[in-house]
Design brief:
homotrimer; 667 residues; alpha/beta; TIM Barrel; Rossmann fold; Immunoglobulin-like; nine-stranded parallel sheet; 17 helices
Chain lengths: 667, 667, 667
């Protein structure tokens, strides 16, 4: 990428009247240089089966070309037209709730051949139309693609073939999944029951894994079509999203982002987050670190909030703070969903840069400032590269397995992931994410592993070696409890890595009035709490960092640390208050020499950095608060880009509320 | 009506043994002069297809005739017999939950021809039997009729025809409803999808509007049949009910009462309300004002609670206080649901005047006092007429639209309606209700408009003229946001009436720690709160009554007042604490000269008045509390009717707990 | 039984590898002398239709025989194999949620002939294989059998026949059930509607009663098959369970245990209960008293928790305290569910004596202590007989009826049962349970009747006679309100027994800020509360124990006491604080001479006693707390068995936390 992209999703199709010229004028005024179009407009592009209408696409592309604004074309396949369902009702996915009915987006069976046939045709028609246009810089495959819980007879049929491929002998399947329990044994492939009724978490989790594979297949099928048409200089991306808790919260349960991104040339993402009094930047950083890690490269923020829901209207300064936070995480674009607010239907309140009156407003006006800054010094910021010493190991399989056994847990996988991530974020520890199949483990000085409930032996053995060879681990409770088929290990817990951790347990419980003792943590009494889960640890070779404080459990360790080979492996056997976790992490970071000057700053002062295309170090200081902050600049002397002013190491700097500085270091 | 009706619903069919003579004796002892019969007894009247049995109807009518008690005959159509469903299962309504199963009442498809055929036959048979009986004074069509969410293929078929009638060109429909969004465009009428799945609020709300039209059609179809038989002196009514929140709360979502009442000769209603410590009279007044407004005339209370649910057993005095509260709102009847408590089935605990032992009890004994008073001075009270200066404009369309966009709101339409109504009630401001099609707007000095989310341009233009010509408005947030098809206006907000209001906005949010500043309200700090919703107002020609008190929103107005032509238009841009609303309303009432002596009294002292058939002014003072109240009588000299004693203007009067006085003024 | 059974459920089928020898070694080390096998393993025993595989059964029985461990064989019928559903999908029960899908246990229609055909075949095959084995001491029919809400057309067909048998004339049914209401009359048997839709509680409750009859039929059908094979010395049992609220809470709604146990030779049960800080022993005592009462004999605890859910890991001493609590209630066995924790599927966290690592652990180690004690002095404890003076009358019909009318109640039947039971338990009052058909009423000095909502006249007349002849009653609110068909009585309430109680009412309500006055209870102000329900009582011949304290209800009695013939009948008209109930019960116990020395002790000191086979009195003192307790031993001199030491009446005894003493009195 040769410049930062600053843009919006733009739907000429949704406009209440013809405003194309007016919109482009307002975009140019804001230095918007890219729009994303066409995604979800199938019923406009192909109003009847085989009848195509490129009016909107043509006029937008032509106008953008003239205005010098780039265009990303999305394939329209994630929302199907009414004629398709009227003609072929079985394209609607069958889920545990039965067959869907028309209305919502993302309700089709992504394996249905009829759907695929018509989807392919419309993609090809669009590609023929747009791929040669100069302003078209790339393509988005579908949008927020997931498997939509598709589980009809046809899908289950494919699943049985998939299982046969893994387990040639049905009894291996029975044994591995423990199907003898409650008489669930399948003694002949022909007897395979409806998987939607299963109470067997191994079978259920494997089916969800298979459903994630369907997403990979669907996306690479689309990518193959696109690749037939696309120019070399055009990219292919996807708009990934996250576990949704009213905003982008954590690992996406229905997509394996690492696998799904293989067919892309650049990863893309949408990130929505709390704002106003609740803006912390955590989700921007989390989503950015995740997406940057997919291809170890810069990524596109294809959607983020402008005014969003009713309580997402940004305070003065917040829109700008957010934009640079994306760039500081390695994004090469900031694109709003969307340009204008929609006057009908589901997302009427998911507002764009323009309100329903389509006039200027404070949010649009702040976007103008951002556009201006991107234009004036964006070339210093684009293609920011990072080299982090810390990685967090995440796993879709662990997530799904914990969902299946949630009856015993008061938390979900992503609560543990975020518990860990958030403390690192607040201490300005830059992180990558890696998956269970990562080849890059050795690259990191410290790997943090939250609740890796389900893990293959191979990975666990690799972790032992990693520590032996000088790597460092922080592993939490509920890790390595089962194998990749969610069979609990009958070896000592945690399976295999008890070796590097030097700790084991065979009982666990839910804490009731439990705190920690015997530690050196700098925490208050109210912070000394353990919730939801505790394992009754016995250190074998490890030293105990903290014991449980409780009349019956006081003899058990809660947190341990083990020197193993050249490395150190820390185990946290319980879900502690975040203050305790912070103390544990500080201890580890200090011991492995990762606690530097930046870690002395804490949220709401967030520091991010990286190296630009010229290999110049770029440092960001963000003030995520309503309080004016006076801080000491701790990096090398440089040019503060927003004011284009020199700044010296050690100099006092004032950060206004929701403001930031960006320094290009001078070596 | 020549006298107040005092009565009960009476079901000989439900009696555990023959008590007709005993019941009539007890009714006469309580001066009960009317019973309602036959409603919901189809399976008794027509035990098999085409076999009729009028035993219960005949014997009750004959006995009532002899006893001098009038009879209202209800058609039995709102609960269908088992044979009908066994023979024709498709009479059961198909809703979004699939086809219903037999059991509950109100489960049929009111458009189903089979149902209509049999319903018509049984109605005609009953009419032939009863219409010439002298004691029969009127008919109730069905009961609490609604559309029961009927939405089967046949109903959707009718809906498409209804839409075609409105939108001759399908593209007008697509544009008006914004169906291009998420590929929902319907490019051919044949492609019309199942409306139950729609995520388009314009389409969904229009379907609900169409369902309300079905209710109007059904009732007028029944009225037409009844009218073939009824004598001139017999009335036709319906038992309307309200949004149910464990009691009668607000505007009925599934019926447009204004439209549905057109086929009636007199409006009827049931009103259920909290009692004991929670009795305030608000629902009696609200339901009464609504029902009186339907035909601008007196109305029947066809059902109200006797002992009701477990916590509805009235305290001493409450049953009488309630009865006269109905009359003071313009009711010409008080009828209990029901005479005796039922010994089996769903409403066992919805108790009647008699308990399950069918003997005298404190509630029945209090009914005897009421009956005695109705008899002795009811002729002074009947046909009470009111001329109110204030109207509240309500809208089914606004209600439905807000339901569709409830994801963004922490309240429903009726919360706003009641927020406004309750403050007016507590200040003794008499109100009428008007609908969006009202021809009577000019009649009122002040119109209060809560959350008129969806409004046609014509109405909004009319409101501008109304103010210009000297009318006064109080409009709340979320008004005039969309047109009648729930398309958000792309003009300045609030659409069109921003002219008379002199205010506009294009951003809004959810308040977090927001209060008001710059006002002159007499409120405490705890009362100075804004919840759920705030619009960031900019006054154009209006003056600001209050600003938001908040670090980021302090520059925006919250409440404004605008002199426009001869009138004043007030806008309340946020959901305030009720204490603030009260202050705003007092300000408006004073400015438009509607703040009189009665407004100096407040709940729990409630004052109601009107003019009887002789045009004598009748004034009620109610004490809605457990505290004895000493108050000054502020109306003209008159006769206090309950004690038949003179009372002078300015005299101190004692109101016992849950007691009242009724004064006939002497001019 | 000649010894205490100490055992586990054991599933060779579920083992991750062959551990039979190792398991037996560890069992022997813990003096485990019985295992339960085969239940729920149909898919292992009959992997394909008609192909049998007894591998696991054979090898376990052979190994146990050799090891001297007894075996209870469960029939495998409560979880069906995949081939059965694949071949005959209609074996899955149709409930109000439609037809089930394969996966969970207990999902079949227990009346389906196909299911019964295959179930019978597999039972016979197993019986042929195992019935002659010496170590097999008994059989368990199915497991936790219920009707699984089966309600398909075939079941409803049987229900109509069942009703025809009771009500020869359909109009008797209509009258008794009050079907005229809301037009529900069934005027011809052919018109019988789908009972799943009914809103008639009489019809609905009768259907549930019929469903409970299906359970009786199913179990006695299995018993008949077993009886063809079983040796005289082998027993037949069932594993009953209770209303589940995360643990065994109260009367089982879906089974009439009294009726269902008739086909058994010994009653069996599973009891799960809170532990750790929440262990009280109440559920052990409640479940034990219930199960002992079924056949007035000792019973088997076939399942109880080892480590159970995450918060059921016992504190040191608790497993042992629990074990002896079972025995002290009359159990002849303590069997854990289950030996080893399961490595896959639904109950992964419902842990056995062994954790997933299958090694020794603190819980297993405590089991070893118990096994050792059972072995050394179990012969003194086995076959403990009780003669209680107090019985609690419970009723499935009352439970179901209160469910149907729960809309008016803030509590369920079992809340009232446990409210009463728990206070008696905490005062060490030994209780039996009796059903409405009990022939043993006269045996008891005091019968306590919680919320007997639905009761036949015959029973009520019997209760009048019982009191007249010197029996004593404590009856709570909501008793004798309806007849056995849930028709509310139109006589004075409580129906019929108002005679012995000397009290009546015809109004009731939900209390709001109501307490009691006029009493002599020793309670604090905070304890003086009435919640959920109050009846406005008028004493006829009774004296008032307490009045309501409330401005409007102060004239009504709340609790009354009546001398009637030779007995005393107490009525509690409201749901009081448990402190009030305790005071009422103390008053009654004292008056009828049932308040002895043991009642001066209170929870956490629990005293239980009975007579062993030698008619020696055995007394248990339990300390259900974390506090060391110093108490006076109040029984006759004897031998304390756990320490084998003499103890004298009046001696001070120390009870350690969660510890107990067991004394064999020396007469």
């Amino acid at each position: 990428m040769d410049k930062l992209l600053f843009g919006v999703a733009y739907y000429d199709e949704y406009m209440p009247y013809d405003r194309l010229d007016e919109d482009i004028k307002m975009m140019k005024a804001a230095n918007i240089n890219v729009v994303r179009i066409a995604e979800s407009t199938w019923s406009s592009v192909e109003p009847q089966n085989g009848e195509f209408d490129f009016k909107h696409i043509d006029r937008v592309i032509d106008a953008m070309e003239k205005a010098g604004i780039s265009v990303i074309v999305g394939t329209p396949t994630y929302a199907i037209p009414t004629w398709l369902v009227a003609e072929c009702p079985d394209v609607l996915a069958v889920t545990k709730n039965g067959q869907g009915i028309y209305g919502a987006r993302q309700n089709m069976d992504i394996t249905n051949p009829t759907y695929l046939f018509y989807a392919e045709r419309v993609i090809r028609k669009i590609m023929e139309r747009v791929s040669k246009k100069k302003c078209v810089i790339g393509y988005q495959l579908d949008n927020e693609t997931k498997h939509y819980d598709t589980a009809g007879t046809n899908v289950q049929h494919l699943f049985i073939k998939y299982l046969k491929n893994k387990f040639h002998d049905i009894n291996d399947l029975n044994d591995e999944f423990g199907l003898a329990y409650w008489s669930n044994k399948i003694n002949s492939w022909e007897d395979f029951p409806n998987v939607l009724g299963t109470i067997n978490g191994s079978l259920g989790a494997e089916f969800e894994k298979f459903q994630r594979v369907l997403v990979n297949k669907f996306l690479s099928w689309q990518a193959d079509i696109i690749n037939e048409y696309k120019r070399e200089d055009q990219f292919v991306t996807q708009n990934f999203d996250f576990e949704w808790r009213g905003y982008s919260y954590g690992v996406q349960p229905r997509v394996n982002h690492f696998e799904a991104s293989k067919c892309l040339t650049i990863a893309g993402v949408d990130i929505y987050h709390p704002t106003q009094d609740y803006l912390t930047g955590t989700e921007i950083s989390f989503g950015g670190d995740m997406t940057r890690s997919l291809k170890n490269d810069n990524y596109l923020v294809l959607e983020t909030e402008a005014q969003g829901f009713e309580n997402w209207v940004p305070y003065d300064g917040q829109l700008r703070l957010q934009a640079f936070s994306h760039i500081a995480s390695g994004a090469n674009s900031v694109m709003y969903w969307h340009w204008h607010s929609i006057h009908n239907s589901f997302e009427t309140y998911w507002k764009g840069l323009l309100s329903h009156d389509l006039k200027e407003n404070p949010t649009y006006n702040e976007a103008k400032i951002i556009g201006d800054e991107f234009k004036s010094f964006g070339d210093k910021l684009v293609n920011l590269k990072k080299k982090n010493d810390v990685a967090i190991l995440i796993s879709n399989e662990a997530l799904t397995a914990i969902e299946w056994f949630s009856m015993t847990l008061d938390f979900k996988y992503n609560d543990v992931v975020r518990w860990v991530y958030d403390e690192l974020y607040k201490m300005n520890v830059g992180c990558d994410f890696i998956g269970p199949d990562s080849e890059d483990i050795e690259k990191y000085k410290l790997i943090v592993i939250p609740a890796l409930y389900s893990a293959p032996e191979e990975l666990l053995n690799k972790l032992n070696s990693y520590v032996k060879n000088g790597g460092n681990l922080v592993v939490t409770f509920k890790s390595a409890f089962t194998n990749e088929y969610v069979k609990v290990s009958h070896n000592d817990q945690p399976n295999i890595i008890n070796e590097c951790l030097g700790v084991t347990y065979n009982q666990f419980t839910k804490p009731n009035k439990v705190s920690l003792k015997g530690h050196t943590f700098n925490i208050s009494e109210e912070e000394n709490t353990v919730e939801h889960w505790m394992e009754l640890l016995t250190a074998t070779t490890a030293e105990t960092v903290a014991y449980y404080d409780h009349p019956n459990w006081g003899k058990y360790s809660a947190i341990t640390k083990n020197h193993y080979g050249e490395g150190i492996a820390t185990y946290i056997g319980c879900f502690t208050n975040k203050a305790i976790l912070k103390e544990v992490l500080i201890g580890v970071l200090k011991e492995v020499n990762l606690f530097g000057e930046e870690q002395k700053y804490n949220f709401p002062i967030i520091i991010k950095s990286g190296y630009n295309s010229e290999n110049e170090k770029i440092v960001y200081y963000f003030n995520y608060s309503y309080e004016k902050q006076s801080i000491k600049y701790i990096h090398n002397d440089g040019i503060e880009l927003t004011k284009n002013k020199e700044v010296k190491k050690g100099e006092e700097v004032i950060l206004n509320p929701w403001d930031l500085i960006i320094v290009q270091e001078i070596n």
